[in-house]
Amino acid sequence: MSRKLSSTLALPATLAALLGLATVAIATPAAASRPTGSKQEPAFPGRPGEPGSGVGRIVEGGSDPNRLQAPLPRRPRNDEEAQAIEELEEIFQRFESASIAVEETLTDQLIIEGEKGRAELEKGYDSQIREHRAQSRVLRSKAITRYEDFLKLHPNDAGWTPEIMFRLAELHFEASLERYQRQEEAWQEQLAALEARKEAGEQNVPDPPTPPSVDYKRSIELLSQVVSGFPDYSLNDAALYRMGVLLYESEQFDASRQSFLALTCSNRYAVPNPDFSNVVPSGSFRTGDYENCKALNPKSDFVAESWLRVGELHYDVDEYDPALEAFIAARGEPGSTLYALALVRIALTLYLKRDFAGSIAKLDDYIRYLDSYKGTPEYDDIPNFRIEAIRWMAKTYNEDDWDGNGRRDKPFGLKRLERDYAERKDEPHVPEIYAAYADLLAFETEFQDAIEIYQLALDRWPLAAAAPEIQYKILQAWKALREDKQVTVARDALATNYLRGTTWYYANENDPDAIERAFKLAEDALVATAVDHQAKAQNLRSEGRDAEAKREYEIAARAYAAYLERFPNTPSSYEYRYSYGDSLYYSEQYLEAAKQFAIVRDSNLDNRLQADAAEGVVSALEAYSEGEAAAGNYSLPEMPKDPDAGPYEPATIPPLAAALQDAYDRYAEYVPDGENVATIIYKAGEISQRYNQFADARDHFQRVIDRHCDQDVAINAGYAILDGYTLQGDLENTSKTVAMLEDKACGTGEAKTEFAGKLRSIGNAVIFQEATLLFEAGEYEAAADRYVALVDQAPDDPNADNALNNAAVAYENIGRFESATKTYERIYTTYRPCDAPKLKPGDKCSEFADAALLRTGFNHARFFEFEEAVASYLVLATNDDYSNSEYRLTALRNAASLQDSLQNYDKSAKLYYQVADKADSPEEKAEAYYRAAEVIEKIGDANKTIAAYKKYLKSFGGSEGQAVREVEAHLRLGQLYREGNKRKDATRELQAAIDIFDARGLQKGTPEAALPAEAQFALAEYALDDALKLNLKSTSSKKLEAEAKKLFDALVKVTTEYDRVFDYRSLDWVLAAMYRRGYAFETIANKVIEAPVPSQLRKGSEAYFAYKITVAEQMEPFIQKAVLLYEECVKRSKEYRINNAWTSRALERLNVYKADEFPLIRDPALTLELEDRR
Residue 342 — very low, low, confident or very high, per pLDDT cuts 50/70/90? Predict the structure, then answer.
């Protein structure tokens, strides 16, 4: 085997479902016993190289045949082991002898006891049977006597005489039969006695007596009288049928036939007379005699069977024409009882008449009819002559003169068969006809013609259950013809086309008998086929014809597999199994190849191929893992490197990786001086390391370092040990390992020098890790100082920027923000960002540079150093070095916010617009636009503010996710227009806020509902303003009435507008609307009360004061309504713990009307606030 072990250090990144590879892990399967069935003897002489032929064969280009001799038994390693084996064999022999003795004793005892029991049962039951038979004879004799007496008294009673005659005939039949049986037994005893006398040597032994004969004369006589004397008797059909049968048994064939005809053709044939004078003899029948026959009882169950017996009686005397007519009459319709049997009789009759086409047609009808019932309960009830019918059809097609002209027909034989059945190849019985015809030709030694038909059958029906037998017959035929080349081809086909996993196998896997027969036939061809094709594949591979070689290896592998499945532990199986693994490997069946190599490697039969097999397991598993990786089914985890990704708990190694690791270990054990053994040991350790099993991994890596320090792979082993200790946080052993590796100085050339330099860097990494442990333990100040000291000591260390960042974070954790800020400044002043667009090769860069700038700004803002914070943020946001920073937009946003805090509203707004320009998401852009508008509003320029909100609405109005902001923007515009006394514009915007809230499906009763509630409140305020502008000035009754109506209509509108605020369930605005409704009722009522008195009422007159009192009384409900609303407002404010200007005003108004119940509480002059001591 020319496989080479991989010298790369990294395993392929694959692994997936194992497909049972756990068993590959290299366990040798238990030995299986050899099949015990008798081996099929070949019909023809064996050929060289055939199993069991005793003739050897040398394959050109193959290996030495002597190499395939049976391996020697494994020898004991020492005298102690030899003695132990000898003792074990003695114990086994004693146990085996005792076991055999016990088994034989038990078997003999069971046989003896069984015979005793059987004899006792026979003795007991024989006496009972004889007694019952004797009683039966007595009772039957009495019944016969009584029936005979009855007939003497009543010979012609139409009601009872025929019934008694029928029963009496049955009793005479039973008596005659029993008498005959007794006579037969006595005759047999006489024969036995005479034979015993002859065997004893007695001379002049008399001849055997004449055998007895049965006499049914009285039964026949009675049945004839029943039918003749009582034609209307209901059982005459049964009587005639019985009469015919008894006459047949009495060898009165013509009379028997006429009895059946009297039943089936009663209009033409009479019941036989007692002297048979009216019986039509044989030879008198002509074609058409049975036409227009009428049965005695057409509905009788005996008609069809009687016709069948008529046909058989004609058939027996070669009267084929009347026999054919009778059989046709017996056939009936499909499904009838005798339909199938009648078809067979018709077919055979037609054959004897030399109507071969008709015979074939009827046999074909019979087979198809029988097959149609397959799988049904009725199938077993149908006469089954299927095999005979197939063979008879083959015999018929072998006839070459169907037309009887004395010359061979055209076409004949196979061509005639093809003409009739080529188009019917899908019918299940057709292949059997071809096979039977070929069998007949082979029997007649027409092998070439038989092979032609066999091959045609295989080509046409390759998946038939009988295909292996047909292929075997082809092989046998070629052997008979001594065509060696064709024998090889046929044997290859037999050895490969019907094994487990083939298309034929899957097509017939539900037929275990067919599969067993196929395997048995293939056995003898397997080894020769396997060796042939492996040798051919090796030659093809050496010529570079890999695709062809792979196909040959596949054939060889299938042959080896089938052989080893049946014979796993023969003397030659050790060598064959290795060859099997080799064929599997080169046919790219790597997983199965690994299993077979493992069996050879671990075999106790021999160790000649142990090293090669160990190498084969490794090569096969590596190739398999590469294939799985390419398919994306499996991948090994990366070697663990990042301590922060832990904790690294030991993980279970998947079966494929475990099998591969075991293969590496076994190879290192069996081939310790192998060329790649150091790499193999490293790979085994690497698998453990990948699954966090660091202790086992270190054992492997240390072996590499100790035994193979002069190889560069030892450097990788050293790195792996250091990685393991680092990941486990074992700084002490990390330092010890560094010292050990420095002392050993492993590797060669430049790699050795580079490794020495990296060991020094690892020392610095240990210091860094110590500082990290202090950090993680919460000792931030010590950790920060250690980090800073590391950077001061090794400013060019790869971890220097990381150390500075960690130090800054540690300072922040202990509140040393100034130190943290300076440390951050040290990062971004020393290092440029690594993703800077114009970074030069020699520039120092750090991934923490932009984050350091961001944290610097944050720390400045923490201490209200807003200008410094803005400066830091703007550097991050605008400097080209940080154009790729993920924090750039955050910095710009923070700068805008801080400018707002610094009341630099113009700058803040511009920065927000810059945020909008740079933001990626529409949501963030929209938020920046809105925040800019809010900032501009703080400037106090209404026009700019209105323009900013409109700019937001123009850009993002109707955008997804902006519904609330859009409502709020319209509300702000409405308020701005209201403040500018632009009622029309204000009303439009306020109404837009309400409409958008409703249209966008925003939920009422949520915090966002306060926006439309406020807008509706503002619209209601306009209505209230309109109402309050109305006054009652006229003293004319009619004008006063018109003015009053206008005033009350305005009140209704005010109430309606405030009621709409309630719909949004925003408590603050609900309370405000509640108060304003009350205020409207109170104010309008007071306006009416204070209105001028009509001029016709003289001031001071009784009518004057009566009018004033009446008006006051009429307005009292309005005043009470207002009070009720004020009370409700105060009540709800307490319930929901809300206190605002509206609730305070409601309380003030209630104090006017109910001072005792609602005392007025003044707001305190001072407010207390908690001191922020952060």
Answer: confident
Contacts of 299 (CB under 8 A, 6+ apart): none
CB 393 within 8 A of CB 436: yes
Domain boundary among 727, 745, 763: 745
Q: What is the pLDDT of residues 667-726, one digit of tens each?
A: 898 888 888 889 999 999 999 989 988 899 999 989 989 999 888 888 999 989 988 888
Which two three-digit tokens encode residue 158? 């139409």
Q: Is 216 helix (H, G, I), strand (E, B) or coil?
A: coil
Q: For residue 413, is pLDDT > 90?
A: no
- pTM (2 d.p.): 0.43
Asked if 631 and 729 sit in the same domain, the reply is no
Assigned token pair, 57? 């064969």
HSE, side-chain direction, 13 A CA sphere, residue 1096 = 5
Residue 292: what pLDDT? 87
Give CA–CA dist 807/809, Å, rounded. 5
Q: pLDDT per residue over 137-179, tens digit each? A: 889 888 988 988 888 898 888 889 999 989 989 998 998 998 9
Residue 1101 counted as domain residue: yes
Rounded to whole angstroms, the Cα distance separating 336 from 373 reads 13
For residues 1110 and 1035, state if they share a domain.
yes
What tokens were used for 763?
């020392």
Q: How far is CA 951 from CA 931, 977, 986, in A?
A: 12, 16, 17
Number of compact structural domains in the chain: 5
Same domain for 344 and 386, yes or no, is yes
Composition of the chain by helix, strand, coil, percent to 5: 70, 0, 30
pLDDT tens by residue, 496-552: 788 778 899 999 989 898 888 888 787 767 777 788 788 888 998 899 998 989 998
One-character DSSP codes across 466-491: THHHHHHHHHHHHHHHT-HHHHHHHH
Last-in-domain residue among 717, 745, 773: 745
> Amino acid identity, residue 651?
A
DSSP lists the bridge partners of residue 832 as 845
Residue 291 has pLDDT above 80, yes or no: yes
Q: Does residue 856 contact residue 875 with C-beta atoms inside 8 Å?
A: no
Residue 846, helix vs strand vs coil = strand
Question: Phi and psi at residue 218, in whole multiples of 5°?
Answer: -65, -40
Q: What is the dihedral of CA 510, 511, 515, 518, to 10 degrees?
A: -140
Nearest to 684 by CA among 746, 636, 627, 612: 636
For residues 1048 and 1101, state if they share a domain: yes
Distances (CA, A) of 876 to 823, 844, 857, 879, 914: 17, 18, 10, 6, 14
- How far apart are alpha carbons 875 and 894 in whole angstroms? 12
- Continuous segment of H or E residues that includes residue 389: helix 386-397
Say yes or no: 1034 and 1143 in one domain.
yes
Residue type, 539: N
* Nearest Cα to Cα of residue 236 among 206, 209, 216, 266: 266
In whole angstroms, give the CA distance from residue 1128 to residue 1117: 16
Domain that holds residue 1099: 1024-1153
Cβ–Cβ under 8 Å, residues 624 and 594: yes
- Amino acid sitting at position 961: G
Mean pLDDT of 570-588: 87
Look at residue 812 in the predicted model and tell me its pLDDT: 84
